[in-house]
């Protein structure tokens, strides 16, 4: 060998029968593409399990605490799919109000409220759902929603005077 390099001899492949073509290069490319597809599917499955593609999972819901209670809402939702917001109100002698702004109603339609609100009010351009109080037990309220438009949606949501801007990403 020239310059001290060793030659490595590849094992010879058996001769193919007459009329059979060697497609080894194509097969190796196909296997590589197949492995990449498996990795992509594994990432999609992991995203589903974590809640990054909608309902269920660790990242699907967000919880906000305020002086007036707790709001649990979807961080990621699916377009044209049902969802819900759960509100917990502390024990109180006075009625309590959950406020949303019109942008909330562009992202979601409210299909129902459990338990039903006592009254609906309008204040500072926002819509308020008034719930009667029970001085012995905290209130648990569920807003049943239907998503309206895909995309990142910003809106105001809060309890009494503790209203803040929130967002939800609605997947198509």
Would you kindly provide a written description of the structure presented here, covering whatever features stand out?
There is one protein chain. The chain has helices spanning 24-50, 102-107, and strands at 61-66, 69-74, 76-78, 82-89, 96-100, 108-114, 119-123, 126-131, 139-147, 151-159, 162-171. By secondary structure, it is of the alpha+beta class. The protein has a domain at 61-171: Immunoglobulin-like (Sandwich). The strands form 2 sheets. It has a 6-stranded mixed β-sheet. A hairpin with a 2-residue loop joins strand 7 (119-123) and strand 8 (126-131). It is rod-shaped and about 90 Å long.
Brief sketch in words of this structure:
This protein has 172 residues and is an alpha+beta fold. 19% of the residues lie in helices and 43% in strands. The protein has helices spanning 24-50, 102-107; strands at 61-66, 69-74, 76-78, 82-89, 96-100, 108-114, 119-123, 126-131, 139-147, 151-159, 162-171.
């Amino acid at each position: 060998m020239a310059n001290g390099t060793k030659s490595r001899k590849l094992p010879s492949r058996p001769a193919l029968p007459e009329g059979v073509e060697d497609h080894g290069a194509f097969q190796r490319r196909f296997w590589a593409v197949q492995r990449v597809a498996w990795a992509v599917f594994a990432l999609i499955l992991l995203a589903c399990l974590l809640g990054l593609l909608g309902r269920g999972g660790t990242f699907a819901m967000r919880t906000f605490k305020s002086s007036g209670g707790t709001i649990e809402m979807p961080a990621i939702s699916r377009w044209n799919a049902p969802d819900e917001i759960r509100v917990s109100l502390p024990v109180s002698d006075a009625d309590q109000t959950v406020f949303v702004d019109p942008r909330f109603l562009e992202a979601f339609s409210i299909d129902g409220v459990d338990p039903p609100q006592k009254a609906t009010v309008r204040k500072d351009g926002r819509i308020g759902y008034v719930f009667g109080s029970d001085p012995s037990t905290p209130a648990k309220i569920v807003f049943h929603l239907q998503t309206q438009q895909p995309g990142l949606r910003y809106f105001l949501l809060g309890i009494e005077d503790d209203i803040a801007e929130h967002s939800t990403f609605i997947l198509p």
